[in-house]
Design brief:
Elements (H helix, E strand, L loop, with lengths): L2 H15 L5 H14 L6 H10 L5 H14 L6 H10 L5 H14 L6 H10 L5 H12 L8 H10 L5 H13 L7 H10 L5 H13 L7 H10 L5 H13 L7 H7 L11 H10 L3 H7 L1 H8 L13 H11 L5 H11 L8
Length: about 350
């Protein structure tokens, strides 16, 4: 028996199990169909799971939601989305949370006005698990969820007592990108860089990066520079990525100076820092603008940096003769060495 035939036989047996009288059997069948995932996305399976959403057993309803979520976009029919939206009003927190997770997995296909409105309402649920799951679902709804009303509600949720909820709110705002980059949101993200929770700080950094140049104010850049001293490597890594996404607006001497001073235990720069530095120092003119002392510092990292390939040693030499600044001699020699070029200075 081939794999496909075996899978079909298993699915047929599980469909039969959904008609069983035992809560345990029905619940287990829902869970198993969820594990099979997209391969279980037949009309009959989806119809049976929809019926299970109205079962008197909380566990069956919850596992039916989960199964539809694991089947994913193939289960995201109009009827399924309506039923999952109804499940957001279930009396059980577990069922509501499972419905949120299923809608999250269906993503933008599930982003109807009714679903978004109910997820926003769930942000005020008494259960922290429900609030957190609702927030995650909104984060996967794409631009349809990035309305002023939704963003306002998410900003209010930043005061939530639950660390998980706050962290997920920042992640959701980040997923909304530039649409969520209001002054109020950016101010909240900057404040979150000093939160006691590592996950909150991490997701705040990620969000600022996802908002790109719209978030690249002087205050934000100053705070991100300070965050390069965060005790968490993941946060520091996220800061570097944020700078990389902010483009030319992050091309400030304080950014490069800080990045040049965060080598790891082996004396090398993190790859994310390398990407940012290479992205900023893309021409001789840019390099000259940052001055010889900083460039000398960066020369320590040698071939780790690719920016030297974009620099003209001749232009640096011309600048030396123009400024008569002897501090340029060392970086000129080091960059020439990196490029395998000979240097001869005749005025």
């Amino acid at each position: 028996m081939g794999e496909k035939a075996a899978t079909n036989e298993v699915i047929t047996k599980l469909i039969s199990a959904l008609k069983d009288q035992s809560e345990e059997v029905i619940s287990s069948a829902c869970r198993a169909l969820g594990y099979i995932g997209e391969k279980a996305a037949t009309n009959e399976v989806i119809t049976k799971l929809i019926s299970a959403l109205e079962d008197e057993s909380e566990r069956v309803r919850s596992n039916a939601c989960k199964a539809l979520g694991y089947i994913g976009e193939k289960a995201a029919t109009r009827v399924v989305i309506i039923k999952l939206a109804s499940a957001l009003g279930d009396k059980s927190n577990n069922v509501i949370s499972s419905a949120c997770k299923a809608l999250r997995k269906m993503g933008e296909k599930a982003a109807t006005k009714e679903v978004i409105a109910k997820l926003v309402s769930a942000l005020k649920d008494q259960s922290g698990n429900v609030r957190s799951s609702a927030c995650e679902a909104l984060g996967k709804m794409g631009e349809k969820a990035a309305t002023n009303e939704v963003i306002t509600k998410l900003v209010s949720a930043l005061e939530d007592e639950s660390e998980d909820v706050r962290s997920n709110v920042y992640s959701t705002l980040g997923n909304m990108g530039e649409k969520a980059a209001t002054n109020e949101v950016i101010t909240k993200l900057v404040s979150a860089l000093e939160d006691k929770s590592k996950m909150v700080r991490l997701n705040a950094c990620n969000a600022l990066g996802q908002m790109g140049e719209k978030a690249a104010t002087n205050e934000v850049i100053t705070k991100l520079v300070s965050a390069l001293e965060d005790k968490s490597f993941r946060v520091r890594e996220s800061v570097c990525k944020a700078f990389g996404r902010m483009g030319e607006k992050a091309a400030k001497i304080e950014v490069l100076t800080k990045l040049a001073n965060i080598p790891d235990a082996y004396g090398e720069l993190p790859l994310e820092a390398v990407d940012v530095i290479d992205g900023i120092l893309r021409s001789s003119a840019t390099m000259i603008a940052f001055g010889p002392m900083l460039i000398s510092k960066l020369c320590v990292y040698g071939r780790q940096l690719k920016c030297w390939e974009q620099v003209s040693v001749d232009e640096l030499i011309k600048n030396f003769f123009k400024t008569q600044d002897a501090d340029w001699l060392l970086p000129i020699a080091e960059i020439a060495l990196q490029k395998g070029a000979a240097v001869s200075m005749n005025e």
